[in-house]
Amino acid sequence: MTALAWLIPVALFLGGLGLAAFLWALNTNQFEDLDGAAWRALQDDETGPPNHRS
Amino acid sequence: MAQVLTELTAGPPAVARDQERIESETTTLVVENMHCGGCMRKVEQALSREPGVISARANLSARRVTVISEKGRRTADDLIEALAKAGYKAAPLLDDAGDAGRADKDFLRRVGVAGFAAANIMLLSVSVWSGQAGDMEQSVQTLFHWLSALIALPAVAYAGQPFFRSAVEALKARNLNMDVPISLAILLATGMSLFQTMRGSEHVYFDASVSLLFFLLIGRYLDQRMRTRAAGAAANLLGLRSMMATVVHADGSTERLPARLLSPGMRILVATGERIGVDGRIVDGAGAIDESLITGEAEPVTAEPGRQVFAGTLNMGQPLVIEATATNEGTLLAEIGRLMTAAEQGRGRYVRLADRAARLYAPAVHLLGLTTFIGWMLLGHEWEPALTAAIAVLIITCPCALALAVPAVQVAATSRLFGQGVLVKAPDGLERLAEIDTIVFDKTGTLTMGEPRLVDPQSCRDEILSRAAALAAASRHPYARAVVKEARARGLDPVAATNVREVAGAGLARETERGEERLGSALWCGVSGETGDLATLWFKPAEGDPVALRFEDHLRPDAAKVIGSLRKAGYRVELLSGDRQAAVEVAAREAGIEHWHARQNPAQKIARLEALKAEGRKVLMVGDGLNDAPALAAAHASISPSTAADVSQTAADLVFQGERLGAVAEALAVAKAAHRMALQNFGLSLGYNAIFVPLAVIGYATPLIAAIAMSSSSIAVTANAVRLRSKRLKV
After folding, report:
1. How far is Cα B682 from Cα B133, in angstroms, rounded to an integer?
2. What is the pLDDT of residues B217-236, one digit of tens each?
3. Containing H/E element for B518?
């Protein structure tokens, strides 16, 4: 029973982290251009992250 | 190691900090031919190199690029020029579908929340179910139920809003759509489960209602995303032909204005290769005008002072000054647009397949729930178990699979067509396409490439061709361009001659050491007795006899084959064109079309479509010119090539890119297959209902059963739809 008292909050917390990460990615427009992101991963001449002002 | 740490914690470089103090502005451009990672990089580099540009970020999926530049240093035109030098055609974004993008994100947020809730509640539910089989204590079960309630309630309140809102709208209009039983089921299930939790009983349906919400949201999101993507692509297409005009003021100065600010009486300067933005009279300048947009005829007409010109036509010759007689809504262009809108409204409301199913389904489901409740009460049970059974019925019959059935198939069909260069503008366009039995083609630009090509190129010697091309490079006449293209194709690499003079309506000439060279009409080159039925250009070299270069507008490479397979599949194929009788007859013969009409204006095309409709036929119109636009709107379904006028692209249900006419046959085949698969999916979902609904009515639909029914039907329906992507199809 004590195990449950630990595990359930931990499970919910970790799940919550996952949800928070998803929502953050959504809000920073990371889901907008999936095709472009796929290509960028293969490019090797980028010197730094672009200014994200959107 | 210490050095690395110092670098990591140093913060943003000094340059970036400076930039934040400078005021910046953001411009979004549409880039037409950006289609891979390499293009994306070139676009970003070309723009970043421009002075004043802080950053440029390309969006490959949307074919757009967002440029952040110092305020006032670079106009949109400068940026477009920079891209043109790099080989990319760009235009300012006209109509921002930003709202649709936000709706997408909104949906995705709700999907995320519903997914999180469904997963965690399922975690607890599975424990409870296995505990019920074993020896879980009552207190633990109650604890888990309360935890499920705590997760479910906010999740349902947030993620369920799209359905609740839609249901309320429908009820206000005294209608029943799919969302009414869905909302009812979710609310009743959650409410009932909360009540049961407070009483400490066994059957609690939180997992069912939240999973239901999750799957349904996915279906809605897919549907929404398809619309957004199509709307975005359509907005791009419009932007690429945005209308700006150069106004010449009384004092001789010029100003660039958007078309909507033009008014009659203004003088407009139209450069070579620019589209005329107004109806008007030529005041100064001469040359040739491509009126194919209005008449469908590819051959340019002579332009001289006093001639009437129309908005949307293309200036092929020297710059013209035009005095506007009609602008914007008053132009012929707008008139055709109005013809089109009228036709569209006359098409009538097409009821989508899913909505048709909803009309039958929703009342049936409600009736069943009610009957179950009443039945149980009549059999002497308490209201609680009766209500539980009724709710179980509502949940099981909930159209999880049904709501997913059609979007899943349409997404699969649309993405398959995307991959082949066909853009589906609206999902119900695909549905209508499946019902087609007659196809009407336009000729110029649709069946044909829309560009003249040299007939019998082998007869022309390389030497002659390269000299003709040197002359031709100075002109924008379509035949001249065709000569240059043929020369390039042979690897002759024509260099434009410098001392070329062009005489409007006659041809080009230049002086060489050996004498005068001429390229142009028969008269211009001193040839007599020419009948000139087929388009011909004559080249008179400095010494020697004039050589004839004949042109024709070739059919698309696979046109005859496609028409053949369409006819074999049982479609009736017709050709309606605005071009001359002789040209249409030749084209029809080559393509293998029996029924054809020439010299059709927009009203006549619509009349022919109406006649076919009166016979009970469902007509597909394939066309590109402005004179096709009203017909495109009046037909049951329509397809347009991507080189079409923007008005036609707006009117068409599907737009196809590239040279192959086979895209039309593909679209038809995919639409039919999608229709079959949508019906299969309906069958699957109804099948599941047939198995599980009786269980629910008798009261054996425990939460476990409900969850299994939900998930497995959704998975089956989606898996079936995915088959559409790789199936081999024929018309």
Report:
1. 35
2. 887 887 777 666 666 655 55
3. strand B515-520
User: Are B401 and B688 spatial neighbours (Cβ–Cβ below 8 Å)?
Assistant: yes
Note whether A36 contacts B113, CB cutoff 8 Å. Answer: no
Is B645 in contact with B312 (CB distance < 8 Å)? Answer: yes
Residue B539: strand pairing partners: B519, B547
User: What's the one-letter identity of residue B557?
Assistant: P
pLDDT at B684: 83
Q: Does A16 touch chain B (CB under 8 A)?
A: yes
| pLDDT at res. B252 | 76
B123 to chain A: which residues are within 8 Å by CB?
11
Find tokens 């990371």 and name the residue: A30
pLDDT digits (tens, 9 = 90+) for B561-609: 999 999 999 999 999 887 778 878 888 888 889 899 987 777 788 889 8
Name the active-site residue from B179, B223, B428, B442.
B442
Residues, chain A: 54
- The CA distance from B122 to B637, in Å, is 45
**Tokens at residue B117, please?**
């809730």
Mean pLDDT of chain B, nearest integer:
78
Does the active-site annotation cover B99? no
Q: Is B166 on the interface with A (CB under 8 A)?
A: no
| 8 A C-beta contact, residue B377 and residue B386 | yes
Q: What is the DSSP string of B283-327?
A: EE--EEEE-HHHH---S-EEE-TT-EE-TT-EE-SS-EEEEEEE-
**Alpha-carbon dihedral angle through residues B661, B597, B340, B620, given to the nearest 10 degrees:** -40
CA-to-CA separations, B11 to A15, A54, B6, B7, in angstroms, rounded: 32, 21, 9, 8
Sheet with B507-512: list strands edge to edge.
Answer: B448-454, B547-555, B536-540, B515-520, B507-512, B500-503
Phi (first) and psi of residue B87, to 5 degrees: 95, 15
ipTM of the complex: 0.80
Using alpha carbons, select from B644, B640, B626, B641 the residue that is nearest to residue B340: B626
Residue in A closest to B45 by C-alpha: A46
